[in-house]
Each structure stands twice: as structure tokens, then as C-alpha cells.
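Hi Y.,

Following your request, here is the sequence exactly as I used it, all 78 residues.
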Amino acid sequence: MERHSTPASTDRALVKAEHVWVCVTGTWGDASCPGLLLEWRTTRDGRWEGLVVWVLRYSGGWDLRQGWMRAEHLRRRG
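Below is the corresponding structure, written out as C-alpha cells. Let me know if you'd prefer a different format.
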């Protein structure tokens, strides 16, 4: 899988929703979940974060989550 690149533009209006893999733990492999990247932002320390909606699989089924994830926890789907 390819690591997700941060946006070329910092203009939030130019960001398009994009399918991504999300890994909350950073270990990838079986821990990655399908998601949709909605927006980018930079933190005070200069890191990129993406606003993501993703589906988390657990032993009892599926759960829908939303939150800001650091760029290193996102990868392009495909």
C-alpha cells in the first residue's frame, strides 16, 4: 500500500473526498479499515491530519467512526 500524500494545496475548498485505508494503531496489515478522507488540516506543530470517516471491524460486527487522523495513519486505497 502507498502512504497517503498530503494535499498540494492548503485551501480546504479544493479538497475532494477520497477513499483511503485507515490504521489507528499504525501497524497496518489486518488493522487497516476502509475510510473516506473528507478534509486536511495542519496542527500547531506543522503535522498534517485528515478528517476521516471509517468503518471499524470488531468481533461483534462493524462500527462507524469519524475523527482527525495523522497523515501517517492514512493510505490511498487501490
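Strands lie at 18-22, 33-42, 48-58, 61-70, 74-76.

Thanks again,
Q.
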